[in-house]
């Protein structure tokens, strides 16, 4: 009997060793999205003085292109095909409890933002005018609430279910006010910066699938495909390359 127990212990320890040895590695991916050709020039949504709260012109942020042609505010995210993705231990819970959306000078800022399902969206105001907060999610319950004047404490909104796409947050009292909110249940979603660049860190070192979405362009494709498969190297950064978009688009 003692020999049998000893053999079982050795087998268990051996199995644990193999599991430890096969533990997932982690890597990163980076890339850039640029507009190739004539850069769209959009007129202001509202000119200065057109309404009492408009103290300066409000630009159309649907397409923001940098001097180098980089396209800002593209949502780049890990696309889950089968269940939840593997998540790095350091990223299993969000570091910030709340994500902030400000109403100021009759404008929502930032124009695009990402919220995880374990976070709260706090919408606050520095304006002396009332606003409404009207959300249009697909899977979560929508809300339509009044945001009182100069309410810096704000309204806290929860989104417990991941969304398939970004959705709009608007003010019904000032219809030009809008933002795009993307709710995800993992940490692997980012927005491109002013130069169209992005990096996603601490990804599982294996072949993973990404999607990219933009307010004006919709789904962005690489080599004609919406699903972008990338091999993530352990301890290194994979390149998604440069994705070029046509300059002409209907905003």
Summarize the model shown.
The protein has 1 helix and 17 strands.
Name some characteristics of this structure.
2 domains, single chain, mainly beta, disordered N terminus, 251 residues, 1 helix, 8% helix, Immunoglobulin-like, 5-stranded mixed beta sheet, 5-stranded antiparallel beta sheet
Task: Give a count of the beta strands, DSSP E runs of length 2 or more.
Answer: 17
> Do you know the CATH architecture of the largest domain?
Sandwich
* Largest sheet: number of strands, sense, barrel closure: 5 strands, antiparallel
CATH class membership of the largest domain: Mainly Beta
The coarse silhouette is globular
| Tally of distinct domains | 2
Overall pLDDT confidence? 89
CATH topology of the largest domain: Immunoglobulin-like
Q: Classify the beta-strand content into a percent band.
A: 35-45%
Q: What class would the helix/strand composition place it in?
A: mainly beta
What does this structure look like?
By secondary structure, this protein is mainly β. It has 2 domains: 26-89 and 189-251, Immunoglobulins (Immunoglobulin-like, Sandwich), CATH 2.60.40; 95-186, Cupredoxins -  blue copper proteins (Immunoglobulin-like, Sandwich), CATH 2.60.40.420. It is built from 1 helix and 17 strands. It has one helix at residues 2-21; strands at 26-36, 75-78, 98-103, 108-109, 112-116, 120-125, 131-135, 144-147, 155-158, 167-170, 178-184, 189-191, 197-204, 207-214, 218-220, 228-231, 237-246. The strands form 4 sheets. Strands 2, 12, 14, 15 and 16 form a 5-stranded antiparallel sheet that branches. A hairpin with a 4-residue loop joins strand 3 and strand 4. The radius of gyration is 22 Å and the shape is globular. The chain starts with a helix and ends in a 5-residue tail after the last strand. The model is unreliable at 1-22 (pLDDT under 50).
